[in-house]
């Protein structure tokens, strides 16, 4: 289940991290920004396979008006202090906490994981606004492995999509500043035939 089709290029056995100095920032206005670094991870195939096989993925249901619907992706969550499901994720979190220490003022603490099984899985427009992120600046750092999917961003108070970032195998994206309050993000469904993708979101304490 959820196996990678072998179409991806990165066959290194060990998952590793490149330097973060290649990060490029895009300002979105109103204090929101996005940092992007394609191909941060090497050996991303190995990470994908381990996560797909070993994370206790959960299907969730949510109330939508008068009916209960299946959330269109599988989920897992690792709270503060819980061991992460792959050592490369621990290394990644440490590297991100160090890189952003001065600007963020606190470490990344939790990891949310999503598994998009195919192009029908998605996440609808939203901000990660549960907790302090509803009122304070924060950062959400996302590591993406598996088939590429677009992350789209638009202003929360209306308006067209400002940015469409193709997130590929081993890529890093960081949403920062006011992004969770002033912008919304989504991973739209794809009509193309796409294989599975796993997203790992690192957040600070008290932010979901
Ligand atoms: O799949 C992604 O990279 C985004 C997931 C997301 O926005 C969320 O879980 O809050
Ligand atoms: Fe989100």
From TrEMBL:
Cross-referenced PANTHER family: ALPHA-KETOGLUTARATE-DEPENDENT DIOXYGENASE ALKB HOMOLOG 3
Entry annotated with the keyword Transcription: no
Organism from which the protein derives: Streptomyces goshikiensis
Domain Fe2OG dioxygenase: 107-206
Organism classification: Bacteria, Bacillati, Actinomycetota, Actinomycetes, Kitasatosporales
Alphabetical list of Gene3D superfamilies matching this protein: Alpha-ketoglutarate-dependent dioxygenase AlkB-like (2.60.120.590)
Any Pfam family matching the protein: 2OG-FeII_Oxy_2
Name of this chain's protein: Alpha-ketoglutarate-dependent dioxygenase AlkB
SUPFAM superfamilies in UniProt: Clavaminate synthase-like (SSF51197)
């Amino acid at each position: 289940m959820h196996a990678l089709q072998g179409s991806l290029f990165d066959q290194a056995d060990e998952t590793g991290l490149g330097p973060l100095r290649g990060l490029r920032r895009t300002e979105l206005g109103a204090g929101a920004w996005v940092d992007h670094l394609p191909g941060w991870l090497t050996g991303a195939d190995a990470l994908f396979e381990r996560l797909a096989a070993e994370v206790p993925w959960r299907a969730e249901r949510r109330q939508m008006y008068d009916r209960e619907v299946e959330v269109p992706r599988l989920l897992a969550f690792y709270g503060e202090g819980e061991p992460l499901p792959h050592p490369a994720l621990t290394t990644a979190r440490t590297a991100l906490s160090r890189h952003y220490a001065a600007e963020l003022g606190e470490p990344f603490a939790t990891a949310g994981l999503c598994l998009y099984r195919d192009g029908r899985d998605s996440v609808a427009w939203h901000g990660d606004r549960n907790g302090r992120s509803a009122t304070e600046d924060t950062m959400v750092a996302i590591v993406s492995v598996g088939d590429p999917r677009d992350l789209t961003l638009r202003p929360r108070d209306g308006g067209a999509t400002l940015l469409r970032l193709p997130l590929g195998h081993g890529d890093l994206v960081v949403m920062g500043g006011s992004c969770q309050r002033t912008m919304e993000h989504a991973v739209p469904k794809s009509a193309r035939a796409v294989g599975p993708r796993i997203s790992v979101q690192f957040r600070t304490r008290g932010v979901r």
